[in-house]
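Tip: read the tokens left to right.
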């Protein structure tokens, strides 16, 4: 049997392909009583000694960063010490250099280190464009030596592409990926393959539901821990308990064939995807340990019969809607609470609607483009029930073109800005009845169409796409929209 987990390289770091996840610390501490940091560090040290020397945590995982900091302080040199990956999940708002530095410094202080090995960034709404400011500032702090590598978490393929095409040096994207949630195997994996970004997969065991313990069991009605509450929502959206039991039965049969556990099959299936660097398996410190069993993941591979058996079980399930991370950004929220109440009070509107003086029933928004006041136009205007959004380009921070040369990425950025304008005026993307897409180069119709389809695939507004001959500046595409609010 393999004695320690397989390893892989991310941004020059050798990491365990089974990362020890510490969200469960927050669940253990939810009564308000925190884990004693030394006892917690002892538990992490036992994982380290067994070769599970890479830890994943976040700013909001209870005292996980403090406990890990205590562990790291036990290692005299940086060379030998375990790796600590953490996340920064700020509330949506302006991401000035000061705010970003403060967020990063807090991670450094809690971990007691001079450099965060991997800092992963989460953003709650892409309608708010400051996520790009945060990532560019993190890149500057990386150059300064405060961050080893930059990752994101819960980014879909479209926004990962925007970040990469805008020059952000991303090493990883941490997303949900399991036998139940197979979204990451699609467009996101393909983009990662092209761009060399590695996936860190979580939810691989659906909080423990993907284990022999749940095979043939009746559906639970009350769930105490956050992780299982979250993944029960995934199971429900994927078709419910009966189709889930078919996945368990298939994985169990495969496990018996290879002499491994059902959980091993679930982890192996994710790890065998080329884009996946590692799976993150949650650890309930001081409660359950599954180290010996999890090591067996590296002692077998899935063959074509195994894949066929799993595919047959998948056929009875429904795909999880949308792309990776949508579960945090739109209904159905597949979070522990079923909404964002554990994380945020509210998502602020990005733009501010103002009434047009002397014109009852009319309001407008500006998006901050330097040209709006000079040329005399609004980003969008609402007249009674109708919202008209101006031709919009991928202009960031007033005057910068986002993702030069990448039509699809620019279209994604533009559609977020259009969504933010419509939201500010009291409408929704679902209300859009008409769009026009102007391309600099007609040959680039496909990435623009795909970006449009990702947003409007179910809304299906009337649409026109045309070549505009030339667009001003580095812009590849410009989009306008009209919505009718019912
Ligand atoms: N970026 C994000 O938004 C995000 C979101 C969620 C999680 N995460 C990360 O991912 C980590 C993983 O957590 P998760 O919530 O997704 O849970 P998970 O890893 O899918 O499930 C963990 C649970 O599975 C059970 N388990 C582990 N190994 C097993 C084995 N060999 N056999 C049977 N059961 C086994 C244990 O539960 P029992 O022993 O209690 O049965 C354990 O608590 C988190 O700690 C966090 O670091 C990130």
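Filled-in amino acids:
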């Amino acid at each position: 049997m393999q004695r320690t987990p397989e390893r892989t390289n991310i941004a020059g770091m050798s990491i365990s392909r089974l990362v020890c996840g510490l969200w469960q610390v927050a669940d253990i501490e939810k009564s308000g009583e925190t884990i004693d940091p030394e006892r917690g560090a002892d538990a992490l040290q036992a994982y380290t000694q067994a070769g599970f020397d890479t830890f994943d945590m976040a700013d909001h995982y209870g005292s996980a960063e403090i406990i890990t900091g205590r562990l790291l302080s036990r290692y005299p040199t940086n060379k030998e010490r375990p790796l600590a990956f953490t996340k920064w999940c700020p509330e949506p708002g302006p991401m000035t250099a000061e705010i970003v530095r403060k967020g990063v410094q807090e991670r450094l202080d809690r971990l007691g280190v001079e450099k965060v090995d991997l800092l992963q960034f989460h953003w709650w709404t892409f309608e708010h464009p400051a996520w790009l400011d945060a990532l560019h500032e993190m890149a500057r702090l990386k150059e300064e030596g405060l961050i080893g590598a930059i990752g994101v978490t819960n980014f879909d393929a479209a926004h990962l592409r925007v970040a990469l095409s805008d020059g952000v040096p991303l090493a990883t994207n941490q997303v949900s990926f399991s036998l139940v949630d197979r979204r990451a195997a699609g467009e996101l994996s393909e983009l990662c393959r092209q761009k060399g970004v590695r996936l860190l997969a979580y939810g691989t065991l659906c909080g423990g539901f993907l284990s022999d313990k749940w095979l043939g069991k009746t559906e639970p009605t009350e769930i105490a821990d956050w992780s299982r509450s979250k993944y029960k929502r995934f199971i429900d959206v994927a078709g419910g308990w009966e189709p889930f039991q078919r996945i368990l039965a298939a994985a169990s049969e495969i496990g018996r064939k290879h002499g491994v556990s059902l959980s091993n099959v679930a982890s192996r299936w994710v790890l065998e995807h080329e884009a996946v660097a590692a799976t993150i398996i949650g650890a309930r410190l001081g409660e359950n340990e599954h180290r010996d069993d999890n090591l067996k993941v590296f002692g077998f591979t899935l063959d074509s019969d195994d894949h066929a058996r799993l595919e047959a079980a998948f056929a009875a399930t429904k795909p999880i809607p949308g792309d990776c991370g949508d579960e945090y950004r739109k209904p159905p929220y597949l979070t522990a609470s079923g909404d964002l109440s554990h994380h945020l009070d509210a998502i602020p509107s990005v733009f501010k609607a103002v009434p047009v003086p002397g014109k009852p029933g009319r309001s407008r928004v500006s998006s901050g483009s330097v040209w709006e006041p000079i040329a005399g136009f609004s980003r969008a205007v609402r007249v009674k029930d109708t919202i008209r959004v101006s031709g919009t380009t991928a202009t960031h921070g007033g005057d910068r073109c986002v993702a030069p040369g990448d039509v699809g990425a620019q279209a994604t950025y533009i559609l977020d800005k259009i969504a933010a304008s419509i939201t500010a005026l009291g409408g929704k993307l679902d209300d859009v009845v008409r769009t026009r897409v102007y391309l600099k180069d007609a040959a680039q119709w496909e990435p623009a169409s795909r970006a449009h389809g990702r947003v409007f695939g179910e809304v299906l507004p009337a649409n026109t796409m045309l070549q505009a001959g030339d667009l001003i500046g580095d812009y590849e595409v410009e989009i306008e929209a009209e919505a009718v609010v019912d």
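The longest strand covers residues 432-439. Residues 21-24, 56, 153-154, 174, 202-208, 211, 227, 261, 263, 280-282, 284, 288, 290, 293-294 surround NAP (CB under 6 Å).
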